[in-house]
Amino acid sequence: xxxxxxxxxxxxxxxxxxxxxxxxxxxxxxxxxxxxxxxxxxxxxxxxxxxxxxxxxxxxxxxxxxxxxxxxxxxxxxxxxxxxxxxxxxxxxxxxxxxxxxxxxxxxxxxxxxxxxxxxxxxxxxxxxxxxxxxxxxxxxxxxxxxxxxxxxxxxxxxxxxxxxxxxxxxxxxxxxxxxxxxxxxxxxx
Length: 190
Hints:
4 helices; UDP N-Acetylglucosamine Acyltransferase, domain 1; 5-stranded parallel β-sheet; 7-stranded mixed β-sheet
């Protein structure tokens, strides 16, 4: 039998340490000023700021100024990995983006959920892994704990709630495979 909402209430404490909250506060100030208002071509500057807060970025990684990174110390990006404008990267656990992968504008990488069966709904952070040569088109949602296989393409406005196999094209909510991704050779391009 369910309890009335007034009886089920319990004290909610942060699952994050004081140090974590302090670091996120300082990062929030830096991100909202020095990072956000940097000119678009200043990738090295933004990478330096992210590294200053513990991100592991290849020098060719690209994070655009209007992207929002929750905890840069949990972000890892390989060579030529890109996070576009207005992407939300909620990463209370490790979030890895492989080489040559692109997370397009307005996407949301959601690295945590809540255990709604417990009265205080504690945070359940889970890692996200995006393989190499992946393209997440505009406004894609990626759920906590998901691994997206190498070469996968996820169509615009799709939602990814479970692991995706490599080298397939996915669309919809939830994202479903629509075909294999076959790379064209240079002879086919001409």
